[in-house]
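Hi C.,

You asked whether I'd gotten around to modeling the 410-residue construct. I have! Everything is below, sequence then structure, no commentary in between.
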Amino acid sequence: MKRRVVVTGLGAVTPIGNTAEEFWNNAKEGKVGIGEITRFDTSDYKVKLAAEVKGFDAREHMDFKTAKRMELFSQYAVAAAMEAYKDSGLVLEKEDAFRAGVIVGSGIGSLQVVEREYEKILTKGPGRVNPLMVPLMISNMAAGNISIQLGLKGKCTNVVTACASGTHCIGDALRAIQYDDADIMFAGGTESCICPTGVAGFTSLTALSTSKDPERASIPFDKDRDGFVLGEGAGVVVLEELEHAKARGARIYAEVAGYGATGDAYHITSPAEDGKGAAMAMTLAMKEGGIEPSQVDYINAHGTGTHHNDLFETRAIKLALGDAAKDVVINSTKSMIGHLLGAAGGAEFIICVKSIQDGFIHQTVGTKEVDPECDLNYAVGAPVEKDVKYVLTNSLGFGGHNATLLLKKY
């Protein structure tokens, strides 16, 4: 028998709030965290907008020396993990450290350190490269740093599946607890690559919106959508075996009831046109949770705002849910925070947990006139208040990676 797994802690750093509660409250209000890029001069760039984290100071979460040994993506991850730990009420000194682990992913790691150190090679020679370049850069260091800061000695890994990384990490953490590899797992994703290389690369791929209007740049499912907006941040949650959580009197936010993961085997950037891969991920999650499509109240869509993603994800939802697709409420958190890449799944999972708690589904902000081919209910124009018992959250990554989690009201 698989063990039951619940959510007991939440932590977030996002473009609309540097705590989970601030993030959720601003999402409820429909606050947009997109603005002009401040990290570098965009004079020569077609793309001028991004969703940057504001007012983040790593020293509020760790000492100065520790912070200097981390790039932003790791700092965001540690800050979110520290918040999730505090929120959970856990006292790790009382736990078996080898039964508590971490699976936190990043799609890219640090492009910034590569930019800085390559410039040194060109101008000063290879001998001047920072000795910490590699450990600052590599994507597993988010998980490694969380483990070090909190003393987590159990399973410590990271999943790198581009924009599906955060959701796959939570799914793998779910499995670790279900099959008795751990009692407690810190899981989610983190990302920070709003920098010249990141913006230039995605622009050349024609993936980014070239809109100059922050309110109309990230507009998933809209007929005028023209790409996604690059975002940054982290979302980390504490997952716990149900009986372990109950024994310590933990506050339980929700239950993680199912997980589905598939590959499209189709294209390096485009989802499969028929939506079958993403549909199967949703079907597998529902099957594990023992529910019918008609029981799904809400889907937090991947909803990037690119033409292909939104159209093909709509097809996938119809395939997975059949006639029930027309009754489910769908939204895209990316309409406010842009696309957090490897962190998207972690941040959006937190939105799903809070939606179950509050019976509130935020609107897809900025979207006005829905594409006729995207003909489902995307919570456009206003939020939806209703009892939310079952939620699906989707993440789709370059390479054809599909991940879906099913959350259930506890």
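If it helps when you're writing up: DSSP finds 13 helices and 14 strands in the chain.

Thanks,
B.
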